[in-house]
Amino acid sequence: MTKKLNELSIIEARDGLRTKKFSSRELVQACLDQIQKHDPKIHAFLALNDQAVKQAEKADLNLPLGGIPIAVKDNFLTIGLPTTASSKVLEGYQPHYESTVSKKLLAAGAIIIGKTNMDAWAHGSSTETSDFGSTKNPWNTDYLPGGSSGGSAASVAADMCMAAIGSETAGSIRQPAAWCGVTGFKPTYGRVSRYGVIAMASSTDSPGPITKTVTDSAEILNIIAGNDPQDATTSPRPIENYLKFPSQKTYTIGVPGEYLEVLSSPARALIESAVEVLKKAGHKIKTISLIPPKYSIGVYTILQRSEVSSNLARFTGVRYGHDRSFFGDEAKRRIMLGTYALSAGYYDQYYAKAQKVRTLIVTDFEKAFKDVDLIINPPSPGPALKVGATENEAMFGEMQDILVEPSSIAGLTGISVPCGFIDGLPVGFGFIGRQFDETKVLSLATQFQSLTSFHHAKPSLT
Amino acid sequence: MTTSKTITAQPKWELVLGFEIHAELATKSKMFCACPADHFGQEPNTQTCPVCLGLPGALPVPNAKAIEWCIKLGQALNCSINLESKFDRKNYFYPDLPKGYQISQYDKPFCHDGYLDLASGRRIRITRVHMEEDTAKLQHSQIDGQKVSLIDFNRSGVPLVEIVTEPDFKTTSESDEFLKEVQLIIRALDISTADMEKGSMRLEANISVRPVGKKDLPEFKVEVKNVNSFRFIKKAIEFEFNRQVELLEQGQIPSQETRGYDESKGVTFSQRSKEQAHDYRYFPEPDIPPFKFSQNQVNQWKQELPILPAQIRSQLVASQLSSDSASTLIASPVRLKRYYELIKKGLVPKKAASLVINAPEDKVSTIDQVQTNPTTDVSQILPLVEKIVSENPKAVSDFKAGKTQSLFFLVGMVKRQLPQADANQVRDLITSKISG
Ligand SMILES: [Zn+2]
Fold first, then answer.
1. Count: domains in chain A
2. CATH code for position B386
């Protein structure tokens, strides 16, 4: 069965463009058609690039992403496309400058097809807190896509683009990728520039790709990774060629019991059979013990809320059109909690203590990685939850992201890849690597995809 | 109403005085972005970028030169240097603060625990010297009859060092000496113009009063801000001392507040009540990784320090200059430079100093030993006298007719072409030429 143009992966699309099987204009048009047909129901996009077709006509196909349509999460500043981070506070905001990530994509020839929906200010794991309406899961529109990069994950799952850019503070790439049945890659903190990304929690925000395959994630990482003179927290370490990850190498893989315990039993069964696939392929599986992930919830909540309370202070209404009354409940709750945690007399009790526990978690991982190359880390306790699940659940995101918070606060790299279905909804499998061990993560994930076909499954959109 | 009296008029009360001194660094670019740091006299909002405008997603990248200069200033003020340091966010809302927080330093400033010795030998302790960013500038004006507040972001993000002293000053002459010395040190390091009028050096005095002999700090403190000259800060402190004493003697406690100084009336006035301590909710700036300096690096910086004013002063005094002359020379880099040049030419220190000190500052660089030791060399002057006399027959005949004015004119003509010529000698030569 031949794929429709919009269903192609980056690599397939590039081959087709370069061998002149189709034009970039046709490719972009196929994606726009798909958006026009299905996005009224999915609501993955907040803004579309009305110049996309024109840009496709002029695309330089010699560039690595030449003429390939890519969607970008709405917290990346993009000149010419309004950027709101899904908050009414920034409704209609036209950026004055380009984020480093989108600038690099454009320089690599990509066509930014549109801006994707997200939880407002990236506060959430459902995309249901978007001020512009929730995105729906393409596998079943009664269900949530996850978040905060829910629009990006859904747009890839619904074949509205070749790939999308997301950003993860704790789970915001891996969890929606898991719920939407696509590949979500979280680079090491400091590997990809945050310049021009509307900050959520500055000490953990990590931009990364959401793609149809692991190799596509490597393609994008190869373009967006690297030191940025405009982001002092990017690492000066030279980047590796992520396209040259080994496709055969065997690894020692740690399986933390404390993490498997958090999974729902049908999800656990899928994860265990995914581990079995790796074992059969010759990888060495080793049971390990880590600090139970529940302890990360408190640490992450305190640190993230504290940073949020400060990062959102600039949106006073003096300069961005809409005043503070336009903040949604979730943002207000986070600002209040963070302000409280940083207040005189409470700092030591909350913020300082959270930093100490963070250090313990970092050391715990360092210790574990002495014996193993990679650690199994499923991104979510189970498949997608129903639309409306976040109502009256102030800690919804933190509970859903319990499994990815430890690796996020430790700044590690990780991935989510599809590993099966429960009641027609995808489940994500994943693992994490040491800081800057992107190549190992990509290598093992590709091996998994070469042994399985879950990532080829497509939702039947109606 | 309180009038300005000298502080010695109050034997029962003593002044408790400390300072926060801000200086804008004269680096090429701002503290966290590439915009020019020199904002004085620029068209508003022409030196801005996403970073110093605090636009969403913009990130600060620290200016290494500014950090080096801050540390050097700390070293010049005898501070210890924190080998591990960091920036923190100071959170508060004000329209001149585009991010809603100022990037500053909280518990790990670059420099701490320094001192500066006064001429009397009294030591003023310096709590810390840290680095932060300047705020934007508010301009309150009227447009079409409407009161408006305008914001100029050119100043936003300009590197600012803050020097904090302990409340060690007992008199305003001590504080005056100290503040001027700090200004000299900053200028000697060549890191800031430290110009009070242009606001590149700003003073905040923390003033309170306690009964003589008491050691504890008073429970109140008045901060006097926005005073832009040494003379006025001195007056403001003296006024404030008397005001507080008057209140205390009436059994009242002065309130904790920020006060300004009205230069025309010579009084301080309340600006902002500080009843509640500000909670700035400091926390480590997550956008800038912490710093680690090697001891070698810090030693290297220390070796690069220029000769500081105190050292120059003792050299000058050692070469028989009065301490007044020494201070005048040190206060003016132009004079000091010329002084050394004249010494090199062989002048004795006292002579060189008096020449340099007595000339107007803008003429100092042209003062020459020759010029000020007029020549009487006839072989040099006479040919010129002959030339001038033959070129100006009208003046010569006027002189002959008794107009003495004409003689001055002729002397002037000669001096214009030979400035070092001795005026008496020229006059004599002209007179004898004309009458001879
Ligand atoms: Zn700037």
1. 1
2. 1.10.10.410
pLDDT digits (tens, 9 = 90+) for B41-86: 999 999 999 999 999 999 999 999 999 999 999 999 999 999 999 9
What's the order of all strands across the beta sheet hosting B101-104? B101-104, B88-91, B283-284
Q: Which CATH number characterizes residue A53's domain?
A: 3.90.1300.10
Sign of the CA dihedral running A85, A86, A90, A95:
positive
- Given a contact cutoff of 8 angstroms between Cβ atoms, the answer to whether B127 and B165 are in contact is yes
User: In this structure, are residues B266 and B4 in contact, taking their beta carbons and an 8 Å threshold?
Assistant: yes
> If contacts are CB pairs under 8 Å, which of residues 29-88 in chain B contact chain A?
50, 54-62
> In terms of residue numbers, what domain contains A212?
5-456
Q: Which domain holds residue B335?
A: 307-373
Task: Decide if B94 is inside a domain.
Answer: yes
- β-pair partners for A71: A114, A164
CA distance B193 to A182: 59
Convert the pLDDT of each residue in B368-404 to its tens digit: 654 556 777 888 888 889 999 999 998 888 888 888 7
Question: Which of B283, B285, B288, B291 is the mutation pick for testing A, counting most A CBs within 10 A?
Answer: B283
Residue A171: count other Cβ atoms within 10 Å of its Cβ: 32
Q: Answer whether residue B2 is part of any domain.
A: no
Structure tokens at A303: 């640190």
Residue A395 has pLDDT above 90, yes or no: no
Which residues in chain A have Cβ-Cβ distances shorter than 8 Å to B99? 313-314
Q: What percentage of residues in chain B have a pLDDT greater than 90?
A: 67
